[in-house]
Amino acid sequence: MDGTTPTPIDPAPPRAGRRAWTGLAVLFLPTLLIAMDLTVLHLAVPSLTADLNPSSAQLLWILDIYGFLIAGWLITMGAVGDRIGRRRLLLIGGAAFGVVSVLAAFSPTAELLILSRALLGIAGATLMPSTLSLIRQLFPDPGQRTVAIGVWMTGFTAGGALGPLVGGALLEHFWWGSVFLLGVPVMLVLLVLGPRFLPEYREPGAGRTDLISVALSLATVLPTVYGVKRLAEHGPDAAALAALAGGALVGSAFVRRQRTLRQPLLDLGLFKNRTFSLAMSTQAFAIFAMAGTQLFVGQYLQLVVGLSPLRAGLWTLPSTVFGIAGSMLAPLLVRRVRPAVVMAAALLVSTAAFVTLFLVSPDGPGDGLPLVVTGFVLLSFGLGPAMTLTTDLIISSSPPERAGSASALSETGSEFGLAMGIAVIGSVGTAVYRSEVADTIPEAVPDEAARAARDTLGGAVRAAESLPDLLADDLLAAARAAFADGLHTTAALSGAVTTALAVLVLTRLRRLPATRPPADPVTGSGRRDAPAAKTDDERLTARQ
Predict the structure, then answer these.
(1) CA end-to-end span of the chain, whole Å?
(2) E strand or H helix at 502, and its extent?
(3) Torsion of Cα atoms, 95 then 98 then 99 then 101, to 10°
(4) Least-confidence region, from 158-162, 163-167, 332-336, 520-524
(5) Domain extents in the chain
(6) What is this structure's pTM?
(7) Do the Cβ atoms of 80 and 192 come closer than 8 Å?
(8) Average pLDDT of the residues in 418-425
(9) FRET pair for 435, CA 20 to 30 Å: which of 66, 109, 180, 379?
(10) What residues have CB less than 8 Å from 57, skipping those under 6 apart?
(11) Cβ distance 220 to 250 under 8 Å?
(12) pLDDT (tens digit, 9 = 90+) per residue, 144-202?
């Protein structure tokens, strides 16, 4: 013995066992359902319209209000879950989601369907931050938690892709309301298995939720999201600018109030953590880059290539598969490679996707379809790891008692990134289209048809249906060439954003270590799974 004192070794966090992984499977179901509900209704619009006869404004609210209210309530529900218990909030939201799904399915009027979709959005806002924050409780080991978040991320990826396909299959045999009934069995499974496999966690010593902060939060987020959506659809009109200005004004009051409260609804101190702030920014801007270009690609497949909505959806399935593969590959890579390197490489793969889309021609299926499918595959394969790792960093870098709020912030940032991408990048692409097509429309095209063609590519396609064949072909060629220029512009802008994000991540997060499998404190070798961390319920049982 040399008399030296051994260096103390920090105990490794406990490894999750079979119970935790079963809990993850339970959490996967509502995650999948929430994403599906964002898209499942799109193919039901014709039958829904024939049955309920909604006005154009009512139809727009039927489609949009679900995602609109999810975004508005996320911050509030994340904080409420931290206070009353994340599992409790998840189960309350799950029960509400199942009941309102039945109400939506059998709605006899457009007004009741709008109300049902609004309530589904509020219920969905209880589920999203609860699922992600509970993953932190289930998986204290960093390596396992990254894998679990990758699985959670695939729920959103798969759900968004499966929504139109499942909806289409149901509509082949049932009425439009059947697309809502998918939520009922899923929520029943959650209510039965959730209390058994999911741990409970609440912030120690949490006080009551500040209702004034809740009101200010809603008055900040809802007008801002509405303003951004209106900006994307109608340009900078008075309503959009007023909504954005109102949201910004109330938002400043919200921030001031949070700084004065002992227990704020939103802990602004989270943003003092550089890892948290950079991960949030990277995630929001990556989605921002994707959203505007994705809008143009969807139109390209249907209006240039000539695919039906269902066939266009089927052609995007390869990208879904590669997105899931990328999400699940990320946890394996960061065991040996620093997260910053993996994220930067993934973002550069997304840049390669935008370069591929930049090469798409306006000539239709002969050249465009293979490039679009390849570009979408690369985009999903790149964004999958980036989203998984940024989400992991957001959750891991926040205090355990603030995991619900951190989860809500992550998802709110994603919602804003999506809306802003459509509004900003989509608007730039639309402006390029309108400028180009105005100079190339054949002079023989009647004024009314020319106005429709200058507005959108869809307007040009509809206008061409009433023209002689040769003139229609010339109009479509001009419109498609202009639309391709708009697509090229959005792809170039998006590629510049992802390249800048790759540089930012690589330079500012380079010191984060790889999440190697935890070593045994005695031998230093990789250790076997230890028993999962005890939940609140298990500790209570042990004391009794």
Answers:
(1) 46
(2) helix 469-508
(3) 150
(4) 520-524
(5) 15-205, 210-264, 270-514
(6) 0.78
(7) no
(8) 78
(9) 379
(10) none
(11) yes
(12) 888 888 888 888 777 777 776 777 777 777 888 888 887 888 888 889 988 888 888 77
Q: For the chain, what is the radius of gyration of the CA atoms?
A: 25
The number of residues in the chain equals 544
Whether the CB-CB separation of 299 and 372 falls below 8 Å is answered with: no
CB atoms within 10 A of CB 541: 10
Kindly provide the b/e burial profile for residues 227-247, where b requires at least 16 CB atoms within 10 angstroms of the residue's own CB: bbbbbbeeeeeeebeebbebb
Of 165, 174, 173, 197, the C-alpha closest to 27 is: 197
Quick one: CA torsion of 166, 170, 171, 176, rounded to 10 degrees? Answer: -100
Q: Report in angstroms the alpha-carbon separations of 505 from 108, 144, 262, 275, 298.
A: 51, 23, 33, 10, 30
Q: What is the mean pLDDT of residues 496-516?
A: 85
CATH superfamily of 15-205: MFS general substrate transporter like domains (1.20.1250.20)
Query: What is the architecture, at CATH level 2, of domain 270-514?
Result: Up-down Bundle (1.20)
**211-232 pLDDT, tens digit each:** 888 888 888 888 887 887 777 6
Mean pLDDT of 411-430: 79
Q: Name the amino acid, one letter, at 264.
A: P
What pLDDT is stored for residue 233 in this prediction? 67
Which amino acid, residue 473? D
Within the chain, what is the greatest distance between any pair of CA atoms?
Answer: 99
Work out the number of other CB atoms within 10 angstroms of the CB of residue 516. 12
| CA–CA separation, 314 and 291 (whole Å) | 19
Residue 293's CB: how many other CB atoms inside 10 A?
29
Secondary structure (DSSP) of 387-455: HHHHHHHHHHTS-GGGHHHHHHHHHHHHHHHHHHHHHHHHHHHHHHHHHHHHHHS-TTS-HHHHHHHHH
Q: Is 15-205's fold the same as 270-514's? A: yes
